[in-house]
């Protein structure tokens, strides 16, 4: 039997990262936050002075990424980038590089390498549709743009970053539009994904729902 994978895909700020991390902790599984890889790719490309529009060049540095994860710390070539890659601008840069098929290809093997026993919870945009098509459970997590913007706004205020709800909602919608309209692995639910709208669900309830689905599959 193949190594179990649960895929949690969805748009920006849908809460998929939080949900996936909690599921992984609950099940004792490994955890892949694939967005981090695209963020690191964009970071490395900028550091190398590359244009983010140059797919072949960005793919070149992406293939050579030397990433390591230690608990919540993300190291690139030994440098701690955990905070830097969480910014909205890093997210937007990631969205740009992720539209290049060569860059997506460059990250394929690295993503597959996270699939280890006893199992994996992977979150992103195309975990179920492209990276782990044989996953036993695929969840597509959504929430209204208003709810997503509100949550992101709260997080940023808590971090002491000054911004408005309107500008956050605009950024979210711009990123959704780019992620949905690109040719390479656009953001869309896999045919066999289960949809979960968490606009009015607590994190706890969302985790419970996915665990019920997981038990049904096993
Ligand atoms: O999830 P996160 O906000 O960290 O992702 C940043 C960007 O990386 C997304 O807007 C998307 O363009 C890209 N991404 C992707 N495929 C994934 C994960 C992220 O294209 N599996």
TrEMBL record:
Record note on quaternary structure: Monomer.
Superkingdom of the source species: Bacteria
Binding site for ATP: 10-18
Entry's family note: Belongs to the cytidylate kinase family. Type 1 subfamily. Belongs to the EPSP synthase family.
Cytidylate kinase domain span: 6-211
Entire-sequence positions represented here: 445 to 662 of 664
The protein's role, per its UniProt record: Catalyzes the transfer of the enolpyruvyl moiety of phosphoenolpyruvate (PEP) to the 5-hydroxyl of shikimate-3-phosphate (S3P) to produce enolpyruvyl shikimate-3-phosphate and inorganic phosphate.
Subcellular location: Cytoplasm
The name this protein goes by in its record: Multifunctional fusion protein
Source organism of this protein record: Polaromonas vacuolata
């Amino acid at each position: 039997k193949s190594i179990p994978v649960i895929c949690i895909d969805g748009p920006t700020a849908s809460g998929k990262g939080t949900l996936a991390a909690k599921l992984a902790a609950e099940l004792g599984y490994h955890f892949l936050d694939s967005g981090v890889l695209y963020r690191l790719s964009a970071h490395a490309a900028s550091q190398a002075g590359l244009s983010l529009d140059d797919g072949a060049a960005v793919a070149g540095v992406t293939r050579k990424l030397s990433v390591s994860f230690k608990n919540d710390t993300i190291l690139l070539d030994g440098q701690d980038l955990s905070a830097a890659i969480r910014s909205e601008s890093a997210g937007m840069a990631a969205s740009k590089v992720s539209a290049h098929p060569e860059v997506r290809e460059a990250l394929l093997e690295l993503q597959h390498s996270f699939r280890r026993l006893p199992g994996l919870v992977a979150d992103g945009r195309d975990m179920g549709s492209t990276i782990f098509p044989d996953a036993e459970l695929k969840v597509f997590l959504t929430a209204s743009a208003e709810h997503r913007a509100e949550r992101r706004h709260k997080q940023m205020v808590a971090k002491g970053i000054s911004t408005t709800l309107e500008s956050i909602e605009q950024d979210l919608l711009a990123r959704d539009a780019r992620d949905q309209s690109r040719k390479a692995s656009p953001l869309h639910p896999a045919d066999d994904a289960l949809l979960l709208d968490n606009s009015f669900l607590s994190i706890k309830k969302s985790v419970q729902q996915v665990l019920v689905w997981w038990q049904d599959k096993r």
